[in-house]
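queue> pop job 88
queue> type: inverse folding (structure -> sequence)
queue> payload:
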């Protein structure tokens, strides 16, 4: 799967180089194609991406909190945050499960986990952060009440594998909750001239078109699907979950008047784009400079195009399984006890 350190082959391995700048309207025919196969997460993580991720997390916080409440989150719950990144949702979960709850954040990127651990220490939050692959979670069966993930599945070659692992990690009756996007970059390219005006002759900004096409191609070249949102209910069902609920909202996109966040996005895909042979450093530098001067309407246009899918389901409860609250009290009550996380994780992960 598309994971840090994974060796699974990508979905496509193609050898067509990027064509010269396409005349307006022909972008669809001349889609970028990766020159070399690659695997792994497409965006730069760690310290370098901290500002972008923190801004994004702030914009999403209220929406995520509402979703978690609707999913039944309550004090005492044991929660797993898969692909936790810098841990913003893990910390949110930690405040909501007190007293008696537990939170474990999982990510494949060691640098991001360092940022997450520091934030948790600063906030005095008892969250355990572990490095693991979303497709092979080392959690013992049924140890969590909630397995949650945000903006991860759209980056994976095999999102179903991750959902199955999350389903196994929750108890019978436990909840698997997913937030991910439907960003139709091609739709954005088509719609921009009409939505935005795009300058003389109703033509869309060529730099923005190039950026939209590049980011879509970079994520897809690693096996991801930036338009995964509508597929989520079927994926959760295929993972064995029942009682599926789904909501669709406009993606809360942070206002970005100086283009800082979009420029940071260019930086985040830089290594992947160059190593895939999709572009070069000089071109990315020009793109970055041009995007810093994006008109303010960009944020509004993006909000109209991008959607956030919030989908949840429950692990079926076999007949005779004790209801939540009636289970044997095998779970440690206080943070820091030696049975945690060793009790929840196989020895190699703890
Ligand atoms: C877009 S970030 C989202 C971070 C966080 N969930 C949030 O919403 O702020 C995706 C995260 O998933 C992690 N990731 C990507 N592939 C992974 C995998 N196969 N296993 C575990 N983590 C992975 C990345 O390192 C990154 O931190």
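queue> result:
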């Amino acid at each position: 799967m598309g994971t840090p350190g994974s060796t699974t082959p990508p979905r496509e391995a193609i050898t067509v180089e990027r064509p010269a700048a396409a005349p307006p309207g022909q972008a669809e025919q001349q889609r970028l194609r990766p020159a070399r196969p690659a695997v792994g997460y497409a965006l730069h993580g760690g310290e370098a991406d901290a500002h972008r991720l923190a801004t994004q997390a702030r914009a999403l916080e209220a929406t995520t909190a509402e979703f978690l409440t609707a999913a039944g989150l309550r004090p005492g719950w044991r929660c797993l945050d898969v692909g936790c990144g810098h841990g913003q949702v893990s910390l949110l979960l930690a405040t909501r499960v007190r007293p008696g709850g537990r939170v474990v954040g999982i990510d494949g990127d060691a640098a991001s986990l360092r940022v997450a651990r520091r934030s948790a220490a600063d906030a005095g939050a008892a969250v355990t952060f572990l490095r693991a692959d979303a497709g092979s979670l080392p959690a013992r069966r049924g140890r969590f009440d909630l397995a949650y993930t945000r903006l991860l599945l759209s980056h994976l070659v095999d999102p179903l594998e991750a959902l199955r692992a999350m389903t196994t990690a929750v108890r019978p009756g436990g909840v698997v909750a997913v937030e991910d996007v439907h960003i139709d970059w091609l739709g954005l390219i088509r719609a921009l001239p009409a939505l935005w005006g795009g300058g003389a002759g109703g033509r869309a900004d060529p730099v923005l078109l190039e950026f939209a096409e590049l980011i879509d191609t970079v994520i897809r070249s690693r096996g991801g699907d930036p338009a995964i949102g509508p597929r989520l209910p079927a994926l959760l069902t295929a993972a064995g979950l029942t009682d599926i609920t789904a909501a669709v909202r406009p993606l809360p996109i942070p206002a970005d008047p100086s283009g800082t966040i979009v420029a940071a996005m260019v930086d985040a895909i830089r290594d992947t784009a160059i190593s895939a042979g999709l572009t070069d450093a000089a071109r990315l530098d020009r793109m970055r400079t041009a995007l810093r001067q994006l008109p303010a309407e960009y944020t509004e246009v993006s909000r109209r195009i991008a959607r956030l899918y919030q989908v949840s389901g429950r692990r079926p409860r076999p007949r005779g399984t004790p209801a939540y609250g009636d289970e044997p009290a095998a779970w440690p009550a206080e943070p820091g006890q030696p049975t945690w996380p060793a009790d929840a994780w196989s020895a190699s992960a703890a």
